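Practice problem: B12-binding domain-containing radical SAM protein
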Amino acid sequence: MTSPFTAASRPASEGVGPEHPSRSGRKKWLLIQPRSNTCMMVDSRRVSMPLNLVMVATLAGEVFDVDFIDERLGDTIPEDFSRYDVVALTSRTLNATRAYAIADKAKAQGRAVLLGGVHPTMSLDEACRHATSVVYGEIESVWPELSRDILAGRMQPVYRADALRPMNAMARPDFTYVLQSRNSRRYSNRIPVLATKGCPVGCNFCTTPTIYGKNYRYRDIELVLDEIRYHQDRLGRGSLHFSFMDDNISFRPVYFKELLSHMGRLAIRWNANISMNFLHDPEIAELAAWSGCDLMSIGFESLNPETLKSVHKGSNRLEDYSAVVDNLHARGIAIQGYFMFGFDNDSAESFQLTYDFIMENWIDFPVFSLVTPFPGTPYFEEMKPRLRHMDWDKYDTYHYMFEPKGLGSRQFLDHFVKVQKEVYKGRAIARRMKGKRLNWVWLANLQMNRFTRSLKPSIYL
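Answer key — structure tokens:
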């Protein structure tokens, strides 16, 4: 399938891509999306478009020449960084080791190294050891000072904004920066878009509150709609699929409902992460369906009320779970449900309750993960004495980090493997997906069926 990102390339004279020389008088950036050293999820042969780095490239491209490399696609990191003035990398915890290795190599060659992303923000002191400068939080809010310092050759160790910039100041992302790769067809056909930033819910295992605090910002609705229409014009068709990358797009229901009421006229399809506590409202489900939503990603997390309370997941009310599911399914919206295991309150019964809930409510695409205390979060500090290791490669939510109090490691992992295999057996898929239209969600289930057959407890260690 041709990726909808494929478009006319930026002219060679504009200097995009490693094969082009720098413009005269402009410093040259290499922007890198590192791969992770391990990956436990099923390989769909597609990777998501890195909207965060598209936004960085768009911002930096106003002042510098920018090349982009996405290692996840199979792009190759150069051995020699001498042609670049700045090597900039983003990092999550699961690819921090790889990002640091590249950063150390570039730094050893005398390049200015800029590190940003979730992990450098949450592990600032560690990241500073591998970089010339670390961006704490979002780069947009420190960009005027950072860009001036780069041009003057006096980069500071840390850039941290006193205040976050309004989202209306965000430039429309220029996707041509990341489409120069010969492997760009490996990108997902879902175009990422951003309407809001932040999530004030404050779950203690989540990194978002540290990065954004209790701030919740949003773009003017017309700006979001303009960006959608831009992609429709760019690709010459209206029936595109968009993924909202927001942490919690529905936090302000009035804004969300107004956005949906306009999106319904654009004839698009879309999906998003959404907070549980707004979905018991049938009006939201109706508007979402009318506006083209085909899947909502929901963090159910646990069927245990004590667990939800312990991680400050106050937005989840067990009594609303079935009503939320019914509201979405009644309007033809599929559900990607996230379920976490490994909390101290978990027991053998927890796995059975989760299996029963998924099957009885026909959850379209269940996703299972292991509780992972990420550095910098309150949960990490609480669990630090019990962590088995700090091998960042395994901080991907699919490796066993600590032993829950209710179950020994062997019994726990046996149950974790079993619930996945049972949910993705052929007959279980047929039961959950009965009567639902054939689409990519069906394909994802079939891929998971093949993937889960080979699961063993040992692979999670």
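Discussion: Residues 1-22 have pLDDT under 50 and may be disordered. Students who identified this feature from the tokens alone can consider the problem solved.
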